[in-house]
Amino acid sequence: MHQLATRIQESFSDGFVGATEWRGDVAVTVTRDKLHDVAKFLRYEPGMDFDYIVHVSSVDWPDDEERFEVVWEFYSIRKRHRIRLKTRVSESDCVVDSLTDLWKGADFMEREVYDMMGIRFRNHPDLRRILMPDDFTEGYPLRKDFPLRGKGWRDTFEFLDEIPR
Amino acid sequence: MAFEDQRTTIYKVNPEHPESETLPTLRTEELLLNLGPQHPSTHGVLKVILELEGERLVKSTPVMGYLHRGVEKLAEDGTYHQFIPHTDRLDYVCAMYNNFAYCRAVEKLLDLKVPERGEYLRTIVAEVQRIIGHQFWLGAQALDIGAMTVFFYCFRDREILLDWFDELCGARLTTSWYRIGGVERDLTPGLIDKLKQFIDYFPPKILEYQVFLEKNRIWLGRTKGVAVISAEDAVNFGLSGPTLRGSGVDYDLRKYEPYSAYPKCEFSVPVGKNGDTYDRYWIRVMELYESVKIIRQCLEQMQDGPVMADVPSVTLPPKERVFTNLESMIQQFKLFSQGFQAPPGEIYCGTEAHKGELGFYIVSTGGGKPYRLKIRAPSFIHMGAFDHMSRGYMISDACTIFGSYDIVMGECDR
Q: In this predicted model, what pLDDT tens digit does every residue of B168-205 receive, in sequence order?
């Protein structure tokens, strides 16, 4: 196991779920209740120093009991290492802690995850849709059960009649 | 007086003079102004709701998504090869770098090595694209502020390179020239000659752009000290590229995580000091010189060889073989209709595009299609810092600020 993952495991023995290293990418999965603590550890602990947030993303696994996987990727500009932090949530209770208090850049990224996958972020300052329109009622487009062509909302748009010549 | 107080207080005009009591009272209140979505300097379709105190920005809320086309959803429906043309449409002024970033990500997923000449060609074309991107930015940003002349000079030189692209791959903007495992075709001797001519012709022209702007007092007044962001905040907001380096953070993936032929070239990464619009401009201009340097070194070092990795299960056969050889045609047909089998796993691969770190996070469960593909678009993340950076500046600076990110809405909204 990578030394970064080992340190997280040592510090958070009860929240640590697993770690993988593939193609040079280190990914650590933690439980949802420990997520904010682990993130804080990554941000401020000497030797970790992850000052840069790369992206926030989410993956839908419809067959799993804990359906959604939320993914954060961090980089340390000082130490030049990166890590991927993951947690799983179920569909009935898809809420995770927001990390906007640690990285301000997480604001828009988390809003996008909410917009696209419907995962809510606790303590987020302004959790609204960001790419889809506010009156979009079809749900969350990046979920696997959302059809590629949409659910028919755009077929209901009214168009102006052609101008008579 | 704090903004909230001023909004609710009703005060008399000139209270020191008693005669003013007869005058009507002035009420101050916040003013909401919609900038966009149809505004010439929003670089696409972007709306920003500005809360104003007089002419000062108190808060600004970007409203995005007008150009959202669901590219990430579309990626899940096609093979890895089929997604390359979609990446052209992300940042449509710099398609080559998007292709590059995407192909690198898939190569990381497949653990594929590109032959040396292929890497050199990729670097050359990527740097040509960086020049085009910075020229476009320079022209458009000066135009936003009102300096029109430099726009024409930038576009004059940009046109030469776009014609060069046209000859290279048949398209000026939506190029799709990169392939997974290499590039679509080699440079012809004619193209190499044209590029050599261009890199001799170009450096004096950069000086020309600089003279137009750096001797222009109005332009200087509108960029120096405007939209200042500290290094700490810039890192915290996840800014990247020239926007981050303008604040003095030396973060460039070409140096930090060297890829392609960059480690074989000598170049420096310009870093700013003040974190204002002027520094971001200066970095981009200096990068033009550096790009010329990189192209020159690559052209000198480049040796003959294949431009595409030879892994028949993944990479496409050369076009001449497809038209003359049955097996190659079948190979091409199978790769485009079914795709190749990627191993299960997940990777993130970031590339230093001219706007910032353009990254692809790909989750694969095996099979020919990505299970999930997430694009880390620098324009989108830069817009997250817009509210922070615009507070306290004038309305007219709003365009300067998002102009200084080099924002392209196709990439921002995906």
A: 888 888 888 888 888 888 888 899 999 999 999 988 98
For residue A43, tell me if it sits in a domain. Answer: yes
Mean pLDDT, residues B259-278 = 88
**B177, B184 contact by CB (below 8 A):** yes
Nearest CA in chain A to B232: A51
Report if residue A89 sits inside a domain.
Answer: yes
Closest partner residue to B73 among A22, A105, A141, by Cβ? A141
Q: In angstroms, rounded to a whole number, what is the distance separating the alpha carbons of residues A86 and B374?
A: 15
- Contact between residue A110 and residue A100 where contact means Cβ atoms under 8 Å apart: yes
**Distance (Å) from the C-alpha of residue A128 to the closest C-alpha of chain B?**
11
Q: Which two tokens stand for residue B218?
A: 């109005």
Instruction: With beta carbons less than 8 A apart as the criterion, state whether B137 and B406 touch.
Output: yes
The count of structural domains within chain A is: 1
Q: What is the pLDDT of residue B362?
A: 92
Instruction: State the DSSP H helix or E strand holding residue A35, giving kind and residue range, or none if neither.
Output: helix A35-44
Do the Cβ atoms of A59 and B363 come within 8 Å?
Answer: yes
Check A77 against B384: CB less than 8 A apart: no
DSSP state of B315: S
CATH number, domain B71-413: 1.10.645.10
How far is Cα B193 from Cα A27, in angstroms, rounded to an integer?
Answer: 47
Find out whether B36 and B45 touch, Cβ atoms under 8 Å.
Answer: yes
Chain B residues lying within 8 Å of A132, measured CB to CB: 65, 68
pLDDT band, residue B398 (cuts 50/70/90)? confident
Q: Considering the domain boundaries, does residue A44 fall inside one?
A: yes
Q: Is residue A68 part of a domain?
A: yes
Local confidence band at B4 (pLDDT 50, 70, 90 cut-offs): very low
User: pLDDT band at residue B292, thresholds of 50, 70 and 90?
Assistant: very high
Closest chain B residue to the Cα of A111, Cα to Cα:
B384
Domain with CATH 1.10.645.10 in chain B: 71-413
